[in-house]
Amino acid sequence: MKPYQVLLFIVCCMAVLAVMSSAYVTRMLRDDCDLRWPTLAEVFDYAEPAETTEQAEAAEPAEETGESEPAETAEFLAMTDTLAADTMIVEPQPVRVAVPLVQVDSTTDSRMFLAAFYRSLTEAGERRVRVMHYGDSQIEEDRMSQQIRQALQTRYGGAGAGLVPLAQTIPSRSVHQELHMNGRPITPQQGPRRYMVYGPKRTQRTDGLYGPMGQMAVMADSLVRGSEQLMALIEPLDGGPRYSRMRVFADSTIQYTADGDTLWLEGKGNVYGISQESDTGVIVDNIPMRGCLGLVFNKIDSAQLKRFYAEENVTLLILQFGGNAIPFNETPATIGSIVRGLRRQVRFLRECAPQASILFIGPSDMLTMVDGVPQTYPMVPYMDRLLRKMALEENIAYFSLYQWMGGSGSMAHWQEIGLAGADGIHFTRAGARKAGNAVAKWMMEMDN
Predict the structure, then answer these.
(1) pLDDT tens track for 222-237
(2) pLDDT digit string (tens) for 162-217?
(3) How far from 198 is each of 136, 214, 293, CA to CA, in Å?
(4) Which of 92, 286, 331, 401 is most buried by a 10 A CB count?
(5) 384: which residues sit within 8 A by CB, 6+ positions away?
(6) What's the rounded Cα separation, in Å, for the pair 380 and 408?
(7) What does the pLDDT look like over 350-409, one tens digit per residue?
(8) Which of helix, strand or coil describes residue 385?
(9) What SS3 state is found at 120?
(10) How many Å is the Cα radius of gyration of the chain?
(11) Helix, strand, coil shares, percent, the chain, to 5
């Protein structure tokens, strides 16, 4: 075709599309076919956004979270990294999807289910009280756990970052770790072979001996030939009170000596974790499981968990899962199935730690693109309500990150003020600090 013919063809196509956009509705349903096209006004970006509302069965009022003050300006928040209130007030974004109605008792303060934990804090001056925070990538780098730890240790005593794996593949905000073999630094991949209950199939075990962190490392048989000694440097970074001792949780065949922040390990066997801690006060362990839905705890040997939870006086288990289900399971049926699976995990952990309270932290608001506009995933509020209902039925505490942030569309506001990442899913470090402080404050308000 000649150039003028190509140009004429393009102009004709644009004319036809313009006529369709101006003459037809923007969406047509026919049989099982869903057709969409923009209006002419939208093409030239002069149309006002259409106002839509959630369907009545999905439009339940947000729960009261206490008195709140007007939010600060975005500029002030970005500069000071503080909030004037526990809840951020934002305008919700419309979601054009129907979800089943979930009735939740909003009058019950679920912190009443933390009674066993609160009782244990009265003994913190005489013995060690352990809190274990399990979660997905939202708590990597010791995010959120660090603020909970600092708040509890400030009030009840205690020191140290708690449990860390022998080989830390993701840097932490609380400790700096290095591995050395024969006097030379090595990467975690060059060190002992790691196994994870939440990892790919090649990293999983058949005997369930993953330990309390859901991951472990095998000494000697996976090291470089001729190397019998491994050095691990674990240096505190958070500036908190100095820990009094460093312990290694491992098979009895593993021998170790400690000198300050340095460990020397020898022997063949399994290493389940290293803990920097004090003899009294509160110890808070950060245990991130990237990409995990939280449906893996019953794959860990129950006898191993029971022994650890009992001997270490674990009085609070924090579970923070659910977000990884949202982008890939956009139907009520699949979300419901995942929540039922999480209920089974709660029951399993209660059997392993009958002396402990359990706190479930629900997923934050999460954004997806709808017609080029960022909006809350439709299943986020549905999962939040299902999780709250499950928690109340199982007599465990529940903290709704989604509601605390401000509900539907709040993640977009958090992005604007630098508290959430570009993916619309994860907090920035500043946002994680704010969320962690909110959880700690919420927990400790009840223990007065």
Answers:
(1) 565 545 578 999 999 9
(2) 999 998 888 899 999 999 987 789 888 888 889 999 988 999 999 999 999 999 99
(3) 10, 7, 9
(4) 286
(5) 362, 363, 400, 402, 403
(6) 8
(7) 999 999 999 999 999 999 988 888 899 999 999 999 999 999 999 999 999 999 999 999
(8) helix
(9) helix
(10) 26
(11) 35, 25, 40
Residue 20: Cβ within 10 Å count: 13
Reading the block at residue 372, the tokens are: 């080029």
Question: What's residue 239's pLDDT?
Answer: 77
Which tokens go with 173?
């905000």
Q: What residues does 164 pair with on adjacent strands?
A: 274
Condensed to tens digits (0 to 9), the pLDDT of residues 242-256 reads 999 999 999 998 989
Q: Which residues pair with 218 in a beta bridge?
A: 193, 270
Q: Measure Cα distances from 54 to 59, 96, 448 in Å.
A: 6, 6, 40
Q: What is the DSSP letter of 394?
A: T
Residue 398: Cβ within 10 Å count: 22
- Give the helix ranges, DSSP H, for 279-331: 302-311
Pairing status of strand 357-361 against strand 397-399: parallel
Q: Give the three-state DSSP class for 372.
A: coil
Burial 179-190 (b: 16+ CB within 10 A, else e): bbbeeeebebee
- Do strands 314-320 and 128-135 pair parallel, antiparallel, or not at all (unpaired)? parallel
Q: Where are the beta strands (DSSP E) in 260-388?
A: 262-266, 269-277, 281-288, 314-320, 357-361, 367-370, 373-376
Report the distance separating Cα 75 and Cα 82, nearest Å. 11
Close Cβ partners of 250 (under 8 Å, ≥ 6 residues apart): 219, 256, 265, 269, 270, 271, 272
Distances 11 to 8, 154, 213 between C-alpha atoms, Å: 5, 70, 63
